[in-house]
Structure formats: C-alpha cells, structure tokens
Amino acid sequence: MSSSTQACANDPASLRQGIVRSPSHRFDYTVLLVGETGVGKTSFLSLLANILAGHKPDEYVDLNDPENEQVGSPQHSQTKAAKVYELTTKNGILLRILDTPGLSDMRGIEQDELHKKDIAQKIISSIHTVDAILILANGTNPRLGFATSYALTTLASIFPRTLAKNIGIVFTNVMSPLSWNIDEVRVPEELRAARQFLLDNPAALQKNLVRLSRKEGISPAQVAKMHEVVAEREQVALDMLAELFDWLGTLAPKPTKDIIALYEQTQAIEQSTTNALARMQASSEHQRKLQQVLEEMKREDQDIAYYKQHVQDHVAAERLARATEAKEAREHLADVLRERIDESAREVQAYTEQVAQLAAAYSALALSGSLAAQIEKTVVLLDYNIVMMRQTGQPSEFVTRVMQSRENMQMKLEMLKKTQ
C-alpha cells in the first residue's frame, strides 16, 4: 500500500465524527442496496445515516420513511417501493443510496416481479451511474436458507457482467469472523469473488436496548452490560465501515444502462415464453377437440355402414343422408382443427427460436449467465413455501395460487432448457 493511499485510508475515529476520506478525491457516490426480505437493509441504512451524522449509539435515530414502510409479517417486504436517500458526511461527501424492497416475499413470486420492476423504474428515473451494489444476506445460516439462496441467485441474474467488480456482500447478524460459518459452495458461483463484509448492526442492537431497558425486571447491571455490548459492536462496525469506504473509493462508477438492458431482456423473454406457452395450451385444446371429432366420425362411419347394409327403407335413407352430411361437416371441422394445430406448432416454434435468441443475448450480458438457473431456484423456493403454507394452515386459495405459480415456472424452465 502506498503512502498516499494510507493517508486517504478511512479509520474508525474519523468515521465516528462523520468524516469519510476519498482516495480518488470524489465527493459523491451512488450505491444500490439490495437483498432478501427481512435481512436488515433499512436498518443498515439507518446505521450509515447515524454514523455519517456523527451520532453516538445513544443518539441513534431511525432513518425510515413511514409512508414507505408497511407493518406486517417479517416475511413480507417492509419497504413498499425503491427510494433514493441522500446522506452527506461532515466533510461534504454525498452518499446516494437506493434502498429497495426485499426479494423472497412470501406473498409470491409475482410480488418479487413487481419489486424488480419498481427497482428498474427507479434506476431509469434517478440513477444513471452506480459505484457499488451492496447485497445484504443473513450470515447466521451456514447452509443458506431457501429464501437467501433464491435471493442471491436472483440478484446474480438481474445484474450485468460489467458490474461484477462493483458488487459487495454484507453478511448481517455476524458478531465476529469466528461466528461466520457460511458454506461458500452455497453462494452462487458468480458472487463468490464479490468483496465480503461482516456486520452485527449496532443500530438494531441499540433499538433493542432501548426497548428492553423499559421492561420491568431489567436491572441496572443488565442495562449497563447491554450498553457495553452495543459500544463493542459499534467499534467493530466502524472497523467494517472503514474497510467498506476504502473499497468504495477504489471503484470506478459504472453506467446503469446495462442493468436496464438486462431487465428489458428478461421482460422480452418472459413475454415470448408466455406467448409460446399460451399457444401450446391452445394447441393442446385443439388436439383434444380433434380427438373428440375423430371419435364422433368413427361412430358416424359405423352408423353409415349399418344403414347401408341392414335398412333399405326411406327412413334409413334419410338417416344415411343426415349421417353422411354430419360426417362431412365433421371432416371439415377436423381439417380446420388440423390447420390450427399446425399453425400453433409454427407459432410455438417461432416463439421458441425467439426465446433462444433472447436467452443467448441475456447469457452474454448477465452476471449469472443462465436464466434457467434462477428459475430453478424459484421452483425450489415455491416448493418450500407450499410446504410451509400448508404446515402453518394458510388459506387454501393462497396455497393454490402459489401452486399455480410453481407449475407455470416449471413449464417456463422446461422451455428454457429446450432452447439451450
């Protein structure tokens, strides 16, 4: 490390006063804050706001927008919409942070799609370059839960390769490196080289301290001990943030146009696969009707043969004429159905080729390189959610809706695999 770099390195003492040093002498940074639902993105944002304001733990305040937060299950995203926050350090550096709704929302994959659309729209309207993407993940589960694995894979699928070196992962709820035992194999391969940080958020701990100190039966000694723990966690957090700001200072800002292009690519693939599946379902219905018509024609052939061989009066002649006329009408219908089946097959082929072209372009652009891998994780998460919903007695209509989403995702996955 050069002496000039050392002179610009951040340190806990300066951060405690709200001072951030920039090795590149820049005065503004833009960061995207993403992760699964309930992992502590907004709490992390509050920590940054308090540190940059020079607040001590007992001066911490919540940084949240009540109008952008919703009260409900922790398995639902508490942040309603993507929002840009602007934090200014004591020495005038502007930190713009895009706080985003969490993924793995238990209300369904459709909710995650709405969140991704909201993030893309906010980037289009407000974020033209980005310095870093910080992915927050729960660092307490060594094997990574279904939701965390899905969220990490999804994030790897929505960010382009051009941002690979600008991605960092903050593992939350980790008291020390010794208590951090994440199985690296379960982190998506595309994210294993990302810069990693560990955090046990003192802002969240301070909030719990205030709540617990008001409870009956808590002794002054216990409160004092909690203050010691928060102070200790603050020191460790400042060490981590110094490292994070040093890393941020080494990154070159990247245009967000590739994020938007990748999102538009996934939307085009979604539309093409939806169209192809719709035509496949229509073709299946035409096949069913054709089979029904052919069965009816067989019965009419039997009737015609019977009338010709066994009945020679005018009544039989009339029945023979009606049966022959009905058969001709059904033959015409069968021809129409065959034409529609052939037309559907051609349309499915065209959509499949379009999906293949779009998927190839996506693979060349996306960090993950494979949309199928992300959909596989989605199917696994939905299977897990279905089991949990049944075990917790969720209404049957909710379970049915998730099952339908799972079936739809499985069909899309099979179509994508055929194009590879």
Question: In short, what is this structure?
Answer:
The protein has 420 residues and is an alpha/beta fold. It is built from eleven helices and eight strands. The protein folds into two domains: 3-254, P-loop containing nucleotide triphosphate hydrolases (Rossmann fold, 3-Layer(aba) Sandwich), CATH 3.40.50; 266-419, no CATH class.
Present the secondary structure layout.
Layout: H1 3-8, H2 12-16, E1 28-35, H3 41-52, E2 83-88, E3 94-99, H4 109-126, E4 129-130, E5 132-138, H5 146-158, E6 167-172, E7 195-199, H6 202-213, H7 220-250, E8 254-255, H8 257-310, H9 314-365, H10 371-391, H11 396-419
Parallel strand pairs: 1-3, 1-5, 5-6, 6-7
Antiparallel strand pairs: 2-3, 4-8
Helix pairs in contact: 4-8, 5-10, 6-7, 8-9, 9-11, 10-11
Keywords:
10% strand, two-stranded antiparallel ribbon, 420 residues, Rossmann fold, 2 domains, single chain, alpha/beta, disordered N terminus, six-stranded mixed β-sheet
Protein described:
The structure is a single chain. This protein is α/β, with parallel strands linked by helices and 420 residues long. It has two domains: 3-254, 3-Layer(aba) Sandwich (Rossmann fold), CATH 3.40.50.300; 266-419, no CATH class. Helix content is 59%, strand content 10%. It is built from eleven helices and eight strands. The protein has helices at residues 3-8, 12-16, 41-52, 109-126, 146-158, 202-213, 220-250, 257-310, 314-365, 371-391, 396-419, and strands at residues 28-35, 83-88, 94-99, 129-130, 132-138, 167-172, 195-199, 254-255. The strands form two sheets. Strands 2-3-1-5-6-7 form a six-stranded mixed β-sheet, with helices on both faces. Strand 2 and strand 3 form a beta hairpin. Helix 4 crosses helix 8 (257-310) and helix 5 (146-158) packs antiparallel against helix 10 (371-391). The two termini are 46 Å apart. Pfam families: AIG1 (PF04548). Residues 334-361 form a coiled coil. One of its GO terms (molecular function) is GTP binding. This is AIG1-type G domain-containing protein.
